[in-house]
Amino acid sequence: MSDGGYEHLFDEIGYSRKIFKEEAVLFPDYVPSYLPHRDSQMRDLVNFFRVSLESPGKVSQKVLCSGRVGVGKTAVTKLFSSIFTKEASGRFGLKFKSISIDCRKERTLYSVLQSIISSLDPYQPYKGFSARDIHRMVLEHLENDNSYLLLVLDEVDYLIDASGSDAVYELTRDERGSGRMNFIFISRSPALMGRLDESTKSTLLHNQVIFPPYSAAELRDILMQRVPQAFQRGAVDDEVVTQAASLGASSGGDARLALELLWRAGKRAEAEGRSAVTPEDVRVVFGDIEGVPNEEELLSLPTQSAVTLLAVARALISAGKERIATGEAEKEYLTVCEEYGIEPRAHTAFWEGIQSLKGLGFLSTEVKVERKGRTTMIGMNYSAVGLQKVLEGLLKRGAERDEQPPID
Ligand SMILES: Nc1ncnc2c1ncn2[C@@H]1O[C@H](COP(=O)(O)OP(=O)(O)O)[C@@H](O)[C@H]1O
Ligand SMILES: [Mg+2]
Asked: Going from the N-terminus, what domains does the chain have, and what CATH number goes with each?
């Protein structure tokens, strides 16, 4: 192939990068060795599975981990499984193997069992055997090997959706009373319990580990833990992390989203050849993922709200920050009112305007307690630059309309 002119695109690969040190640290399947704000879930799991170490084979333990998307269910369970199997052998001389099945991929009892047997014993032929046969093979293998299994059924709802609750019932049935199979079910649906058989349900009612959504402060800690590994020094500051954390918190306390925002914001800064990520990068990529407000939505705003929103956007852009103080926003508001020939509202009305924009999801507020007193800080859930552009267009058109002489 002749030189077509694209080769230079590869020039920078392998050279030092301005933004990232190790991107993969931000990817969803990377599990750090410590998970901030999940100590109590980790402790719960240890307590529930204590019996499997103290009296191995006495009970087949079953535990349910539940919570919304991105709250650490998979990460905590992965970390727990790996520590648990290590401690089982190191401290208790027990052979524990853990297998995690993603039920989004394995949606039938048969394919779940197939994954288990081929992971326990790659040489065991299972083709042509029924689910019940394979189940027996699994149990026999564990008995012959004198080992135990911790089976994680991640996103178990998919298995139940596709194969009914019978699949779970069959899988957990311990006909031989061997107590060698133990289970962690992971679900994000509060309706799961209602779909299980009575016996599994009554066990799981007592064995639940709840994963609440993360707060903005918790997400900050989670992001902060990875920044030094993922980014070059100075590429990501506090404002950037706080912006990603607050958007993650407002979208259901989702750590997966917060990490993705940080990663994509980094990609954006890198693509533009900058050496630092900005809060605006985070807001822009959030818009790419979650959608931006369309013109229609903005058009339906009363003029005062549009002016207020524009003022916040401009103030954020010129400050280059995640949030600005109410005072800064109000100062900008007066300037914008003057620019468009609009009578400014008094402080209280301005403040109510901020609250209503918050209610509509455009803005977020946070009270900062300092030595001089309390200040309300205002942040934005969309690209400030993007909103500025659209709002300026709308307000300009509105002003032109108003200038036309009345028809009658
Ligand atoms: N407490 C935590 N500390 C560090 N990273 C976390 C924490 N909780 C979640 N994460 C990360 O956030 C992402 C989503 O978590 P995950 O466990 O997949 O959520 P879920 O399974 O509840 O949807 C993963 O990349 C995970 O590593
Ligand atoms: Mg998960």
From this structure: 21-26+214-290 (1.10.8.60), 39-210 (3.40.50.300), 295-403 (1.10.10.10)
Among the listed residues 18, 10, 25, the one whose alpha carbon sits nearest the alpha carbon of residue 267: 18
Burial of 352 (0-12, 13-18, 19+ CB in 10 A): middle
User: Which atom of ligand 1 has the smallest separation from the CA of 72?
Assistant: 17
Classify strands 323-325 and 363-370 as parallel, antiparallel or unpaired.
unpaired
Q: Whose CA is nearest to atom 10 of ligand 1?
A: 72
Q: Is 248 exposed, middle or buried (0-12, 13-18, 19+ CB in 10 A)?
A: buried
Per DSSP (E only), the strands in 56-200 are 62-66, 95-102, 147-154, 181-187
Contact call for residues 254 and 348 (beta carbons, < 8 A): no
Evaluate: CB of 321 within 6 angstroms of ligand 1.
no
28 lines ligand 1 (CB under 6 A): yes
The token pair at 213 is 């959504």
| Ligand 1 touching residue 213 (CB < 6 A) | no
Question: For residue 186, which atom of ligand 1 is closest to its CA?
Answer: 21
> Is residue 152 lining ligand 1, measured as CB closer than 6 Å?
no
- Collapsing DSSP to helix, strand or coil, 267 comes out as helix
Closest Cα to atom 17 of ligand 1: 72
Q: Of the bound ligands, which one is closest to the alpha carbon of residue 76?
A: 1
Cα dihedral 300/302/308/314 (nearest 10): 40
Distance 157 CA to ligand 1 centre (A): 19
Local mean pLDDT, 10-residue blocks, the chain (408 residues): 75 77 94 97 98 94 95 97 97 97 94 96 90 94 96 94 91 86 93 87 93 97 97 96 96 94 96 95 91 78 93 95 94 96 94 90 89 90 91 85 57
Give the SS3 label for residue 42: helix
Ligand 1 lined by 184 (C-beta under 6 Å): no
